[in-house]
Write a structure and sequence with these properties.
Blueprint (H helix, E strand, L loop, with lengths): L6 H21 L4 H6 L5 H10 L1 H18 L3 H24 L4 H23 L6 H17 L1 H4 L4 H44 L19 H11 L4 H33 L3 H13 L1 H17 L14
């Protein structure tokens, strides 16, 4: 990267990114489309940090917070949401991109900050006398109840109704058994989407690690072994803990598995369009994604790409 812009340009860049974040937040519709738009909400602050430095990122967050106070009826709560939900994780994502950290390190760190911010938000927004965990349980129960009514809204007749009922039962059972893991998985997926889009926006800048060389630090496998042991314990509480842990670890090894595929795609010269289609199918099919995660985990021992002979292979 080139030298940082002047303070004036950093302020202007941060103000522009803050306006972009305000537009995204204020115009986002509710429901599924609103959820889809949240996949780009970290971009304004992250790009401001990468291009303009910490000053631009701070200005972007501040501008969006001030705008939220003026737009929303409950301005204080809206500003807090901006700062914790988008400002803090976006700044960490931008710092990881600016320092050219690996995808795994950047996304895991950003996800951790996002989850801590989410807990702080729950603590701040929970009704008086209710702990954040209880408030979270109530939110999960509300989402479970919403999914239970999903088949009825789709008609509930024919093969489509049967499929909808089975899908709803699966989602509800998963939420009740592994709600925290599902939350972590959802936050991580959103962070990865923001990372990928940020890399697309920053295309042309050098210093980024090729995706085909991405690898999860080797010592993380002990967490997988621990989670597998808890699931196999046969006791409800350890099983639930192990399942939640596996849900959090699975996307890390899915990324490593996709990197293995990327390596072989490049070796045999698969066109980029077909690579993108293949990765899209992997992401949309849970069974395939689990298979890719297993390939990523087995890469620890098989070393498909022969990268663990290099000193940086397990450094993350």
């Amino acid at each position: 990267m080139g030298p940082r812009p002047s303070a004036r340009r950093a302020l202007l860049l941060g103000a522009g990114c803050g306006v972009a974040l305000t537009v995204l937040e204020s115009t986002a519709p509710r429901g599924w489309w609103g959820g889809a738009l949240t996949l780009v909400h970290l971009l304004p602050v992250a790009l401001a940090v990468v291009v303009g430095g910490p000053l631009a990122g701070a200005v972007a967050t501040l501008v969006a917070m001030v705008a939220a106070v003026g737009i929303e009826a409950e301005g204080g709560a809206a500003a807090l949401v901006i700062a914790l939900k988008y400002g803090a994780p976006g700044a960490v994502l931008g710092a990881g991109l600016a320092r050219r950290l690996s995808l795994t390190v950047t996304t895991v760190t950003t996800t951790g900050v996002a989850l801590v911010s989410l807990f702080v938000l729950l603590w701040a927004l929970a009704p008086s006398g209710i702990t954040p965990l209880v408030y979270l349980e109530r939110q999960l129960a509300a989402h479970a109840a919403e999914f239970e009514g999903w088949p009825a809204r789709m008609g509930g007749a024919g093969e489509g109704g049967v499929w909808a009922a089975e899908a709803a039962r699966f989602v509800v059972a998963t939420l009740r058994l592994a709600g925290p893991g599902m939350i972590g998985l959802g936050v991580f997926a959103g962070v990865v989407a923001n990372y990928v889009l940020a890399r697309v926006c920053l295309r042309g800048l050098d210093g980024f690690r090729p995706f085909a060389t991405e690898a999860v630090p080797d010592h993380v496998v002990w967490a997988v072994i621990l989670a597998g042991g808890l699931v196999a314990s046969g006791r409800p509480a350890p099983e639930a803990l192990g399942l939640n842990l596996l849900l959090v670890l699975m996307p890390l090894y899915a990324i490593q598995g996709l990197a293995v595929f990327r390596h072989f795609f490049q070796r045999i010269g698969v066109p980029r369009v077909l690579q993108a289609v293949s990765f899209g199918l992997f992401a949309l099919q849970p069974v395939l994604l689990v298979a890719v995660s297993c390939i990523g985990l087995s890469d620890l021992w098989i070393d498909f790409r022969k990268i663990r002979q290099a000193p940086t292979a397990a450094s993350g």
